[in-house]
Amino acid sequence: MEERLYDLIFIVRPATPEEEIKKVLTSLEHACAEKGAKIEKSEHWGTRKLAYKVMKHREGIYLYQQVRTTHGELVHELERRLGVQDSVIKYQTVRRSEAPEEAFAEARAARRPSSAPHRSRAAAARGCRTSRRVVTRRTGSSQCVPKVLSFYRSAANGRATSER
After folding, report:
1. For 146-163, b where at least 16 C-beta lie within 10 A, e where not — what string?
2. Residues 6 or more apart from 107 whose CB is under 8 A from it?
3. Handedness of CA 138, 142, 148, 149 (dihedral sign)
4. Which CATH number fits domain 4-97: 3.30.9.10, 1.10.10.10, 1.20.1250.20, 3.30.70.60?
């Protein structure tokens, strides 16, 4: 079987004593050791405000673990153990890819080809190709000027322009 990497984030009630948090963590470590998994990273993110009320709580203690395993059923076992604990109010497990930076770079390259010129939506709506929006200070009017001509036009007219 293939070895996979998982992120496990869970939230504990804010009034939970440190000993009980350690008990939850040792329970998860024991389950990982039984299945031959490895906890690569374990972080205590501290008390943070929740986006919405969860079980009548507005804040909670966030804990993060990164687990590497070949057994998919380990994730179910970890989630089962977290669901049984009274102190845990929310948890989530996410499978990660090995090299997220490379995946993001590929997705970015697929979205926008590098050879195509960049233009804003407003410029595209006005029918401007590769252009800049130039506002004259004297009249306050704005016009669409090609990038190459924007410098020459402002210098030839002797007017101060600001580019947006």
Report:
1. eeeebeeebeeeeeebee
2. none
3. negative
4. 3.30.70.60
pLDDT tens for residues 69-101? 998 899 999 999 999 999 999 999 999 876 666
Backbone angles phi, psi at 107, to 5 degrees: -65, -40
- DSSP states along 36-78: T-EEEEEEEEEEEEEEEEETTEEEEEEEEEEEEES-THHHHHH
pTM equals 0.59
Model pLDDT for residues 111-137, shown as the tens digit of each residue: 765 554 555 666 566 665 555 555 555
Give Cα separations from 91 to 48, 63, 116 (angstroms): 15, 9, 43
Tell me which residue has tokens 């970890």. 78
Q: How far apart are CA 12 and CA 87, in angstroms?
A: 5
